[in-house]
Amino acid sequence: MLHYPQIDPIALQIGPVAIHWYGLMYLVGFALVWVLGRWRINRGYTDLSLRDLEDVIFYCVLGVVIGGRLGYVLFYKPAEYLAHPLEIFYLWQGGMSFHGGLVGVIIVLLLFARKRNKSLLEVGDFVAPLIPLGLAAGRLGNFINGELWGRPTTLPWGMVFPHTGDGIARHPSQLYEMGLEGFALFALVWLFARKKRPVGQVSAVFLMGYGTFRFLAEFTREPDNYLGLLAGGLSMGQLLSLPMVLAGAIIFAWSVKKSSRELTR
Predict the structure, then answer these.
(1) For residue 140, what are the domain limits?
(2) CA geometry: angle at 178 spanning 173 and 184, to 5°?
(3) What residues form the annotated binding site?
(4) Within a domain: residue 215?
(5) Domain total of the chain
(6) Measured between alpha carbons, how far is 219 from 216 in angstroms, rounded to an integer?
(7) Over the chain, what HEC string results?
(8) How far is the CA of 98 from the CAs of 94, 185, 249, 254, in angstroms?
(9) What pLDDT does 265 receive?
(10) Helical packing angle, 201-217 and 185-192, nearest 10°
(11) Phi/psi of residue 185, each to 5°?
(12) Which residues contact 150 (CB under 8 A, 6 or more apart)?
């Protein structure tokens, strides 16, 4: 059994200004997107420019923060935030929904694609391989915050999180998700995108991969106490991930069919 290392959530304090690890992890995530995006542009994986990459990152920051926060508010704690609406802006306390952030990113990328006379899937195929390492950084932020801990376990790496107040060893599910949704998904999508693929397939692999990894990781994650397990004994995260897998499969099948038609012309 392991004990949570009691990491101070504040990385740096300058007078009244506190810089939290959680926020820093988001900065690390977007920095990784910038580095990987430059690499793909410089090697000709897209006709987007470095200026386009900067615009994409700016739009995605807005999409992730606004969509992620509103998604958390609407999907997980609508009653609580309705009673205390100002707490919606307390981002340093954690509370972001990946699925809400994804919706926000899709919306801003759609606007960006229209300005560049491209399809959403073309832009999505460029952005998808850049995202997973940023997700890994976000999950590390969850671990540092001591939030989103796992279900009880007797495994030797079970960890006691002080915030639970029960002294029970639990799965370090934040680290599982960092490994699956972050590193494993990065390897899957990055390697798949190394070859030229029909439009939409890279985006589809990302959607199916994330949805599958998140669905599996949720079996080790403690359900939110204000929601519990929902339909079919599944968590909210699992229910939100299933449409991602389905959407990815539909997009992939459509892309294969479309590319086959173009080859036979």
Answers:
(1) 8-196
(2) 120
(3) 139
(4) no
(5) 1
(6) 6
(7) CEECCCCCCEEEEECCEEEEHHHHHHHHHHHHHHHHHHHHHHCCCCCCCHHHHHHHHHHHHHHHHHHHHHHHHHHCCHHHHHHCHHHHHCHHHCCCCHHHHHHHHHHHHHHHHHHCCCCHHHHHHHHHHHCHHHHHHHHHHHHHHCCCCECECCCCCCEECHHHCCCCEECCHHHHHHHHHHHHHHHHHHHHCCCCCCCCHHHHHHHHHHHHHHHHHHHHECCCCCCCCCHHHCCHHHHHHHHHHHHHHHHHHHHHHHHHHHHCC
(8) 12, 15, 20, 25
(9) 61
(10) 170
(11) -65, -40
(12) 159, 170, 171, 172, 173, 174, 176, 220, 221, 222
**248 assigned to some structural domain:** no
The reply to whether 110 falls in a domain is yes
Residue that is written with structure tokens 């923060």 in the block: 65
Residue 35 lies in a domain: yes
pLDDT in tens, 208-221: 999 999 999 999 99
- pLDDT digits 0-9 by tens, 185-207: 999 999 999 999 999 999 999 99
